[in-house]
Amino acid sequence: MASSRQDFGLPAEPVVADREASVAEHVRAVLDARTRALVAHAPGTRLGADPEELHRVRVAVRRMRAVLRVARPHLDRSWSEPLRAELGWLGRALGPARDLDVLLQHLRAETTDLPPGDRAAADRLVAGVEAERRTARSALREALDSRRYADLLRALAAAVRTAPDRSDVDSRRQLRELVLGQVRQLREAGDRLPPDPSDRDLHALRITGKRVRYAAELAQPALGDPARRLVAEARRLQDVLGAHQDACVAVERLRGLLRDDTDPQVAFVAGRLVEREHHRRTELRARWPVVWESLRQAAEAV
Questions:
Q1: Which CATH number is 169-302 given?
Q2: Where in the numbering of this chain does the CHAD domain appear (predicted)?
Q3: Is the model more confident about 272 or about 257?
């Protein structure tokens, strides 16, 4: 099983892309940095003691996959698309355990202030989520211990080692066009939203905003401060809409747990928690339009 840089062939020194680097070179630098993060945090992810380890691995996978998608016009798809597909497989293997980590952390925080008489019922709710998490973590470890994962690490290292030729084309212009292409998609998605968007609409907008962020991160070494501001504003939107999605997921999870537990006290506590999540969702819905407008303004400056 591949477990270190030497095992699967990353370069001895990190890859860096400068302002004159081609789009492909910028992609190579991202793959290098994120693969190193993946390898560094995979052991802690297997152990499961610190949820932040899994979070960092999942972020690394998501960013690599997003960058390969954004830069598709400038890459050889014979290697980039299979690599993106395999990163998608790994992301799906990591996702359930990470989502349950987030839910558990939130539920534990929300139940600390309950009266002593309600804590036992709250503990039963949390125990149900913990049981789901154990199952998800078993599947996660199976993926990380698989030959498929080891092959993916070798494929990432091979992509990093393949240094693309520098192009005579204005790469800064190409990177700016990539960012603007994602910005256009985001603006169109926002313009299509009804006055009172559904939870599904806002979740889709968050995903589109995340692609803008990753495109701007890819271009930041070449575009400088405008890209940096765009990254910051896209992250703010992602944070607000991500918390909104977490509240929606918490409501659905609590309802699912209730279907499996008919204890009246458990139902009472779950109802209180659902009410809190609805309140959190309402607050976040009031905040996101302001963040959205700031992102639109940042996009105008790129």
A1: 1.40.20.10
A2: 20-297
A3: 272
